[in-house]
């Protein structure tokens, strides 16, 4: 990875959508930016709780580290939880 940066945004200047839950972000959130070798620059904005939950989900994943979209996996996990209730 060329670089990776996470920072907390206290008050956003405009409304954003969480990359994980797809709900509007109205307050404090996490802004992540990075560039991996061979890939383009990418950014992500997410609720702090969603980001932490997704990170824990990836850490516990039985398939190990992957190149997949963690936001997509997170949404699928939430859909399965809702279907199971």
Helix percentage range: 25-40%
Named CATH architecture: 2-Layer Sandwich
**Sheet with most strands:** 3 strands, antiparallel
Compute the CA-based radius of gyration. Answer: 14 Å
What does this structure look like?
- By secondary structure, the chain is of the alpha+beta class.
- The protein has one domain (3-84): 2-Layer Sandwich (first zn-finger domain of poly(adp-ribose) polymerase-1), CATH 3.30.1740.
- Helices cover 32% and strands 28% of the residues.
- It is built from two helices and five strands, in the order βββββαα.
- β4 and β5 form a beta hairpin.
- α1 packs across α2 (70-84).
- The longest helix is centred in the C-terminal third of the chain and has 15 residues, at 70-84.
- The N and C termini lie far apart (39 Å).
- The model has no long low-confidence stretch (mean pLDDT 85).
Q: How would you summarize this macromolecular structure in one to three sentences?
A:
By secondary structure, the chain is α+β, with helices and mostly antiparallel strands. The chain contains two helices and five strands. A three-stranded antiparallel sheet has the order 1-4-5.
Structural key phrases:
85 residues; 2 helices; 3-stranded antiparallel β-sheet; first zn-finger domain of poly(adp-ribose) polymerase-1; alpha+beta; two-stranded antiparallel ribbon
What's the structural blueprint in terms of helices and strands?
Blueprint: E1 3-9, E2 16-17, E3 24-25, E4 29-35, E5 41-46, H1 48-59, H2 70-84
Antiparallel strand pairs: 1-4, 2-3, 4-5
Helix pairs in contact: 1-2
């Amino acid at each position: 990875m060329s670089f990776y940066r996470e920072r907390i945004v206290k008050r956003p200047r405009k409304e954003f959508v969480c990359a994980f839950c797809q709900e509007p972000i109205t307050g404090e959130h996490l802004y992540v930016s990075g560039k991996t070798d061979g890939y383009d620059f990418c950014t992500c904005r997410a609720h702090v709780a969603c980001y932490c939950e997704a990170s824990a989900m990836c850490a516990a994943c039985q398939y190990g580290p992957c190149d997949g979209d963690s936001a997509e996996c997170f949404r699928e996990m939430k859909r399965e939880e809702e279907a199971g209730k």
